[in-house]
């Protein structure tokens, strides 16, 4: 019985060494992909399937936006007039309180809302220039962003002709149905 037990121990050790080398190989692959800023990677090798998706550096301000939104939600005074401000750059949130009268000129802005739940992307691919930036003129039907839902890239078109005043969400940010994406001044 001892020889059989030794074979089982040897088989377990070989299996453990094989798993350790696969894990080390996977770790080095992840480091390589991060170093070269690869956004997504699929690996299919036999029965092993690995899918890696990395958060892009542009999405890092989300933590500040989350804090700003939490502050807005905790403040009962700022509920209605500042609804779109937490989705702007984090630095804009503190400035919103003293500039309450400035909210009235924004009353003529058309708000483009997300038609679906997904992830907001400002450009057709990582590293490409944004579809639109503040100050750009857009036509009704012009693609202005992408919302990814269930691995499908859905082109979101402007529903009004005008000038982009501001983008209300960060690149790579999850968005809800009906969430404001852009403020457009009609022309």
| Largest sheet, strands/sense/barrel | 4 strands, antiparallel
Task: Sum up the overall morphology in one term.
Answer: rod-shaped
How many DSSP helices? 3
* CATH class bucket of the largest domain: Mainly Beta
Q: Helix and strand string, N-terminal first?
A: HEEHHEEEEEEEE
Average the pLDDT over all residues and give the rounded result.
73
Radius of gyration: 24 Å
- Secondary-structure-based class equals alpha+beta
Total E-strand runs: 10
How far is it from the N-terminal to the C-terminal residue, by CA?
88 Å
Strand order of the largest sheet: 3-10-8-5
Helicity, in percent?
A: 25-40%
CATH architecture verdict of the largest domain: Beta Barrel
Beta-strand percent range: 25-35%
Number of domains: 2
Q: Segments where pLDDT lies below 50 for 5+ residues?
A: 59-63, 75-103
Question: How would you explain this protein's 3D organization?
Answer:
The chain is rod-shaped, with a radius of gyration of 24 Å. The protein is an alpha+beta fold and 187 residues long. The strands form 3 sheets. The protein has a 4-stranded antiparallel β-sheet, with no helix packed on it. It has a 4-stranded antiparallel β-sheet with strand order 7-6-4-9, with no helix packed on it. A two-stranded antiparallel ribbon has the order 1-2. Mean pLDDT is 73; it is low at 59-63 and 75-103. A hairpin with a 2-residue loop joins β6 and β7 (152-157). 28% of the residues lie in helices and 27% in strands. It has 2 domains: 2-54; 58-98 and 108-186, Beta Barrel (OB fold (Dihydrolipoamide Acetyltransferase, E2P)), CATH 2.40.50.100.
């Amino acid at each position: 019985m001892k020889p059989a037990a030794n074979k089982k121990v040897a088989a377990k050790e070989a299996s453990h060494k094989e798993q350790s080398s696969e894990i080390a190989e996977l770790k080095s692959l992840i480091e390589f992909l991060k170093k070269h800023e690869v956004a997504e990677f699929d690996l299919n090798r036999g029965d092993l399937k690995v899918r890696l998706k990395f958060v892009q550096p542009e999405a890092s301000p989300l933590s500040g936006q989350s804090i700003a939104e939490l502050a807005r939600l905790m403040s009962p005074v700022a509920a209605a007039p500042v609804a779109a401000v937490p989705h702007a750059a984090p630095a804009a949130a503190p400035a919103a309180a003293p500039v309450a009268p400035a909210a009235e000129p924004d009353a003529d802005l058309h708000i483009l809302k997300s038609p679906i739940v997904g992830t907001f992307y400002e450009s057709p691919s990582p590293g490409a220039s944004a579809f639109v930036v503040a100050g750009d003129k857009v036509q009704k039907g012009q693609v202005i962003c992408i919302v990814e839902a269930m691995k499908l890239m859905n082109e979101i078109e402007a529903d009004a002709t005008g000038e982009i005043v501001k983008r209300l969400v960060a690149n790579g940010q999850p968005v809800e149905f009906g969430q404001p994406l852009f403020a457009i001044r009609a022309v």
